[in-house]
Specification:
Layout: E1 2-12, H1 16-27, E2 32-36, H2 42-46, H3 49-66, H4 81-91, H5 98-106, E3 110-113, E4 115-118, E5 123-127, E6 133-144, E7 148-150, H6 166-171, E8 178-182, H7 186-197, E9 201-205, H8 217-230, E10 233-235, E11 240-244, E12 252-256, E13 261-264, E14 266-269, E15 273-275, E16 307-309, H9 320-338, H10 356-359, E17 362-365, E18 370-375, H11 378-383, E19 388-394, H12 399-404, E20 410-417, E21 422-430, H13 437-445, H14 450-453, H15 466-476
Parallel strand pairs: 1-2, 1-6, 2-3, 6-16, 8-9, 8-14, 9-10
Antiparallel strand pairs: 4-5, 5-6, 7-15, 11-12, 12-13, 17-18, 18-21, 19-20, 20-21
Family: Belongs to the class-I pyridine nucleotide-disulfide oxidoreductase family.
Pfam families: Pyr_redox_2, Pyr_redox_dim
Enzyme class: oxidoreductase
Length: about 475
């Protein structure tokens, strides 16, 4: 049976990004349908942000406690892995999306379960789980928010080896005895932190020369030092050339360039992402299936008047919070255009403009120590042609850091545009620095001048006093 229905807006994908689009368009009075083939709430709720941070939080809390005299002796011994995994399950709603469905119902969005695909301009067909078809027409906009998936490299033997991706790593039912992690990015370091603390013997195999290569070099150095102290083996400049695991179960062997072999009980490949756009009918509207979708600052797909892409699929920033920011932009723009409200196209900081995607993307890596950054690194700023100066400070010398933990280790850097005397980027690494990041994001996004930042007085004794130390160092020249 085929049902034909018309809505103002049709959203493909009901992760947090798609849900936010629906929230904004419904708040503006537009009828909105949401299509989802898996769990409402998407990867972030069930296989990424929420379960991964639930695994990591006990690890970080124990590490902090062990660095405090008077408390360290009370937290000896291993973590209760069973209890940690049980709390992880709760934070992932036990992989049940009833709560998400209730929320979407509460805002008046119509939910269609099944695989949705474009069938020409403004047309979406949903192939339901019981064989039913729904033909949806969007009066104003179709929004693609189908996210991204892990990419496995083309290595002999890998396809049938039952390797973990980020999904399996965050939802595993027990800690493997030996875990090999291929990749040194965010997923790799966070999962190494979590599973080592939960009882696995972890070996990281990293193709490049260090960890977290997209951040300032000192970040990866601090994280690597801490992981090694915790017992993780890190091998850099290492290529995996083959994987052996007959039958897809049992121990797995990784063959390295040069012939060396590394054995493990499970292997996680954290080696990149691809857009989930290969089966959504892009070819019916003249776009390449499986491609990243290029958008303007209103998140409208270039060359179209009705198609929008938000979140991972547009490749601007593969971060949930940034996708939700884009969703708010797109939702407001769709509503304004539907209601013929003129947009101030010249206002780069207007509600219709995803400017922060260019200037102020924040990210926290929840390792021990934490890493937090917003805007450009020194290398990125120089490559972009800015005349800049990096201002560095040892976080351990800040009074608040010494109170936070004994033998505190950390580092802070701000990248100053010397022509405009504003911050282009800020990076912190150290325990608890994730909570410093929003102040840095405001400084970068708001283009607050260095002279004005001088009058933003940090409380004493907190780690945020590093702001004063950075500004003093800059003024000292």
């Amino acid at each position: 049976m085929t049902q034909a229905v018309e809505y103002d807006v049709v959203v493909l994908g009901a992760g947090p990004v798609g849900e936010n689009v629906a929230d904004r368009t419904r708040a503006a009075g537009l009828s909105t349908a949401v299509v989802e083939s898996e769990l409402l709430g998407g990867d972030c709720s069930y296989w990424a942000c929420m379960p991964s941070k639930a695994l990591l939080r006990p690890v970080i809390a124990r590490a902090d406690a062990r660095r405090l005299p008077g408390l360290s002796g009370a937290v000896r011994g291993p973590l209760d892995t069973k209890a940690v995994l049980a709390r992880r399950d709760e934070q992932a709603s036990n992989w049940n999306d009833d709560g998400q469905l209730a929320w979407l119902d509460s805002i008046g969005a119509r939910v269609y379960r099944g695989k949705g695909a474009l069938h020409g301009p403004r047309k979406v067909v949903v192939y339901g789980p019981e064989g039913e078809h729904h033909s949806l027409t969007a009066r104003h906009a179709v929004v693609v928010s189908t996210g991204s998936r892990a990419v496995l490299p083309d290595i002999p033997g890998l396809a049938g080896a039952g390797a973990w991706t980020s999904r399996e790593a965050t939802s595993a039912r027990e800690a493997p005895g030996r875990l090999a992690i291929v990749g040194g990015g965010v997923v790799g370091v966070e999962m190494a932190t979590a599973w080592q603390a939960l009882g696995s013997q972890v070996t990281m195999l990293v193709r490049g020369g260090g960890l977290l290569p997209r951040m300032e070099p000192f970040v990866g150095e601090h994280v690597a030092e801490s992981l090694k102290e915790a017992g993780v083996t890190i091998r850099t400049d290492t290529d995996v050339t083959a994987v052996e695991r007959p039958g897809g179960s049992g121990p797995v062997t990784l063959v390295l360039a040069g012939g060396e072999r590394v054995e493990a009980d499970e292997v996680l490949f954290a080696t990149g992402r691809a857009p989930r756009t290969d089966t959504i009918g892009l070819e019916t509207v003249g776009l390449e299936p499986g491609s990243w979708l290029k958008v303007d600052d209103s998140c409208r797909v270039e060359g179209t008047q009705w198609l929008y892409a938000v979140g991972d699929v547009n490749r601007r920033a593969l971060l949930t919070h940034q996708g939700k920011y884009q969703a708010r932009i797109a939702g407001d723009v769709i509503a304004a255009r539907a209601q013929h409200v003129p947009l101030l196209e010249s206002d780069r900081w207007g509600a219709h403009c995803a400017t922060a995607d260019h200037a102020a993307v924040p990210q926290v890596v929840f390792t021990d120590p934490e890493a937090a950054a917003v805007g450009l690194s020194l290398a990125e700023a120089e490559q972009a042609g800015h005349r800049v100066r990096a201002v560095d400070h040892d976080l351990a010398s800040v009074a608040g850091a010494g109170l936070y933990a004994e033998n505190y280790r950390g580092h802070a850097r701000m990248v100053v545009d010397l022509d405009r005397e504003i911050l282009l980027g800020v990076t912190f690494v150290g325990a608890g620095v994730g909570e410093l990041l929003h102040s840095a994001t405001i400084a970068v996004a708001g283009e607050v001048s260095v002279d004005r930042l001088w009058h933003a007085v940090p409380s004493f004794p907190t780690i945020s006093e590093v702001w004063l130390r950075l500004l003093e160092t800059y003024r000292a020249g």
